[in-house]
Amino acid sequence: MAADQKPLNEVVFLTVAEVATVMRVSKMTVYRLVHSGHLPAIRVGRSFRVPEQAVHDYLRESYVGVESA
């Protein structure tokens, strides 16, 4: 296990609807991110669960700052 990974019993998983709420996007956008591999997820039956930390990491890496002139 890598130093930055938590044991699975400590990982908080979010539903697609919860991820969409956090990111303020549609559920379809979350599904696209999962299917394209941009957002890691696990499949539980017919649904997906996304680690909460993965959502925060994705948002942090996607942040676009505006440089002042």
UniProtKB/TrEMBL annotation:
InterPro entries: DNA-bd_dom_put_sf, HTH_17, SinI_DNA-bd. Residues 13-61 form the Helix-turn-helix domain. This is Helix-turn-helix domain-containing protein. It comes from Streptomyces catenulae.
